[in-house]
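We modelled the chain as a single entity of 59 amino acids. Its sequence is:
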Amino acid sequence: MPRPPKKPEDRRTDSMKLPMTEREKSLVQDAADAVGEKPVTWARETLIRAAKRIARRQS
């Protein structure tokens, strides 16, 4: 049985290309592995948390 479709507001349809060195990529991979997440998931969640924290400080 397929999973139910996501709500339109929950669909991730946009993306960013994030250039990085091999070492930086390895650091992201290691951090994601340490918490059992995919690197893209770990990076997205980490970036969003940081962005929200900065936005709160500026408001």
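As a brief sanity check on the tokenised model: The mean pLDDT is 95. The chain is about 55% helix and 0% strand.
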